[in-house]
Amino acid sequence: MQVIKNPAVETWDSILKRPVMDTTRLFATVQPILDAVRDRGDEALLEYEQQFDHVTLDALQVTEAEITEATTKIPHQLKEAISQAKRNIQKFHEAQEDELPYMEVIPQVRCWQKRIPIQKVGLYIPGGTAPLFSTVLMLAVPAQIAGCEEIVLCTPPDKEGKVYDAVLYTAHLCGVTKIFKIGGAQAIAAMAFGTNSVPKVNKIFGPGNQYVNAAKQLVGLNEVAIDMPAGPSEVAILADSMARPKYIAADLLSQAEHGVDSQSVLFTVDEELIDQVLVELEVQLDLLPRKDLAQQALKHSKIIYIPKIEDAIRMINEYAPEHLIIMTKNYTVVAERIVNAGSVFLGDFSPESAGDYASGTNHTLPTNGFAKAYSGITLDSFTKKISFQELSRDGLMMLSNAIEIMAENEQLTAHKNAVEIRLERIYREDEDDLSWRH
Question: What single-letter DSSP state applies at residue 61?
Answer without folding.
Answer: B
